[in-house]
Amino acid sequence: MKRLFLPILVVFVFFMMVFLGDERLARLSGSTELDVITLRAAQSKAWNHPVSQGIDKFAELVEEKSDGEIIIETYHDGLIGDDREVIESAQRGSIAFASSSTPNMTSFTNYFTAWDLPYIFENKEEVYKAIDGEPGDIVRAEMEKSGFKVIFFPDYGFRQIVNNTKAIEKPSDLDGMKIRTTNSRIEQADFTALGASPTPVAWSEVFTALQQGTVDGEGNTYSLLWDSKHQEVLSHAAEVNYNYSSDILVMNKDLYEELEPYQQEIIMEAGQEAMEWQRVVATERDEEAKQQFIDYGIEIYEPTDEEYLEWKQATEIVWDQYVREGYAEPDYVDTILDTLGKTKESIFEE
């Protein structure tokens, strides 16, 4: 019996190790294949949008760096849900990764409200300096309180005002127009300040809303508009850069912490490399999409420096309304401005 007991014990321990390993992987990723972790990443933008391309690049880098140990399946075009739905799924752990535009993330932290302030970022160099510096680090830490690990910030771009009604050359031209916005209170206040009627509409419903006249226009980047075929229901654009929207790719924090340290390092390294690659792609794509708009026959108004200042000054009231505790936190706004080496006055008086 003793001679039989030891082999039986060894076999039992072996099978328990295999079973527990499989159980852990299954709990982590839903995969039943030993030694391979399969994770899902979802977001709502078109598959060929630069944000989508950045997430695909991230997945490619993770697989490469892990020698196929970690596979990330990417789902675009809202196949799993809109921004809010996929973010909530990631928070619950139903999926591992989700991406959303930051205006739709303000319910998780007021810090994104500051990012939405009109003209707080005036070029992409300022955006990257803030995201890569202290303002970005503060957001990363804050998101962990909501159960997210920030992987990287895909470059989304500057929003322009587009419509299918008339040419827009000055703020007063927007009087009475119904303009689709995100759920961002700041963006809604922007259009109120500009004289329009802000109308929040889910991204998946915007094309139909424009087609049916529920809204007259929207604010978005050239690349997203073109890649989503919105040029088919638009006729005019005003290039006023009223808002910069970043995207954010997050991972469920509990799932991240269940990974081995070397796997966590692979995830974060891949995120950094994907972000650097995606920034170049996003900038090139937006320039290309602008030309596609022009070639399609859409009229694009580009203001002079003097006219551009008028657009900025029309939205200064939004800062007065929202830079306060509980909204765009004053200390955090100051952190951004200090990081960029400028002041509110320099934005609206120059």
Q: Can you give a write-up of this model?
A:
With 350 residues, the protein is of the alpha/beta class. It folds into 2 domains: 24-156 and 246-285, 3-Layer(aba) Sandwich (D-Maltodextrin-Binding Protein, domain 2), CATH 3.40.190.170; 157-245 and 286-349, D-Maltodextrin-Binding Protein, domain 2 (3-Layer(aba) Sandwich). 50% of the residues lie in helices and 18% in strands. It contains 15 helices and 10 strands. It has helices spanning 2-29, 50-65, 83-92, 111-115, 124-131, 134-144, 185-193, 206-212, 222-227, 253-258, 261-296, 305-314, 316-322, 330-340, 344-349, and strands spanning 37-42, 70-75, 97-101, 148-152, 155-163, 178-181, 197-200, 217-220, 236-252, 299-301. Strands 1, 2, 3, 4, 5, 6, 7, 8, 9 and 10 form a 10-stranded mixed beta sheet that branches. Helix 7 (185-193) links the parallel strand 6 and strand 7. Helix 2 (50-65) runs antiparallel to helix 11. The radius of gyration is 23 Å and the shape is globular. The N and C termini lie far apart (91 Å). 47% of the residues are buried. The model is unreliable at 4-34 (pLDDT under 50).
Task: Explain briefly what this protein structure is.
With 350 residues, the protein is of the alpha/beta class. It is built from 15 helices and ten strands.
What name does CATH use for the topology of the largest domain?
D-Maltodextrin-Binding Protein, domain 2
Question: Which percent band covers the strand fraction?
Answer: 15-25%
Largest sheet descriptor: 10 strands, mixed
Intertermini distance = 91 Å
Pick out the low-confidence regions.
4-34
